[in-house]
Amino acid sequence: MSNTSIPALLRSPTSSVIESEAAHFGAMAGDWWDPSGASAMLHKLNPVRLCYIRDRIDQHWALDEQSLRPLAGKNALDVGCGAGLLAEPLARMGASVTGIDAAPELVAAARDHAAAQALNIDYRAVPVEALEGRYDLVTAMEVVEHVADPGAFVVTLAERLAPGGLLILSTPNRTAWSKLLTITLAEGFGKIPRGTHAYDKFISPERMGQLLAQTGLEAVDTCGIAWSPARGLYLSDDLQLNYLMAARRRLPLAKVG
After folding, report:
1. What secondary structure letter does DSSP report for 118?
2. How far is it, in rounded angstroms, from Cα 139 to Cα 93?
3. What is the residue-wise DSSP string for 53-64?
4. How does pLDDT run across 108-163, given as a tens digit for each residue?
5. Phi, psi at 127, each rounded to 5°
6. Is 153 within 8 Å of 128 (Cβ atoms)?
7. CA–CA separation, 239 vs 175, rounded Å?
8. Are 178 and 184 in contact (CB under 8 A)?
9. What is the spatial distance between Cα 45 and Cα 30, in angstroms, rounded to a whole number?
């Protein structure tokens, strides 16, 4: 999608970054890769969302589900990449990966970790609005609830999506259950650093679908991330806590006759 195809009122602002949010996450850079550290919940969440991402890319491009490198020959953009928890698996799946984050401390940690794993990932400490180019796969995991203007942010994600590409987002749902588990309990008991989330920035799946539609994208799949004491975090039809959404460019209507 070119910039000219998006109405001026929907175009993205100079930056979606909230400096206090970037500083909050940047302060976690030192132990981001410690599964027992401040990002422990992300370590538990990452395998769940990877399972979903793998299924979606297989479905979207009709790939061999047994392939070890399903993204070979494709490029991927991970927005809000942190220190690389998702970017590294995408690279191992064969993608040429660009990871961006507003916190320079996280980008530095991501570069160091990728180098130690002999992974070639293009990490940049820039807002998505400063990026150029288009990508076959665009991911934004647990990011949209931390930006200045979610609508404008989604517009920018759509601008970065290549024709025939796939966009995948995840975010907490705007429900009492999500507030209880994510903020009251997880932050209250130190499972997530205090101040990580603000309930008034949580977005419902219905609202997310509207934001995507405004950019010419359509949600093709929505899946919940649920939690139970016995199973921990897992993919579910229950959207109350958190959800993943996959989107693509709306297909033109077929001509009749």
Report:
1. T
2. 14
3. HHHHHHHHTT--
4. 999 999 999 999 999 999 999 999 999 999 999 999 999 999 999 999 999 999 99
5. -75, 155
6. yes
7. 9
8. no
9. 19
Q: Hey, CA dihedral for 168, 79, 13, 2, is it positive or negative?
A: negative
3-state class (DSSP) for residue 119: coil
The structure tokens listed for 141 are 């995991």
Q: Which candidate, 138, 127, 175, places its Cα nearest to that of 18? A: 127
Which amino acid appears at position 47 of this protein?
Answer: P
Q: What is the spatial distance between Cα 19 and Cα 27, in angstroms, rounded to a whole number?
A: 12
Q: Are strands 122-124 and 96-100 parallel, antiparallel or unpaired?
A: parallel
* Helix%, strand%, coil% for the chain, nearest 5: 40, 20, 40
Q: Could you tell me what percent of the chain has a pLDDT over 90?
A: 86
User: Beta 161-172 vs 135-141: how paired, if at all?
Assistant: parallel
Structural domains of the chain, ranges and CATH numbers in brackets: 3-249 (3.40.50.150)
DSSP string, 21-72: HHHHHHTTGGGTT-TTSTTHHHHHHHHHHHHHHHHHHHHHTT--TT-S-TTT
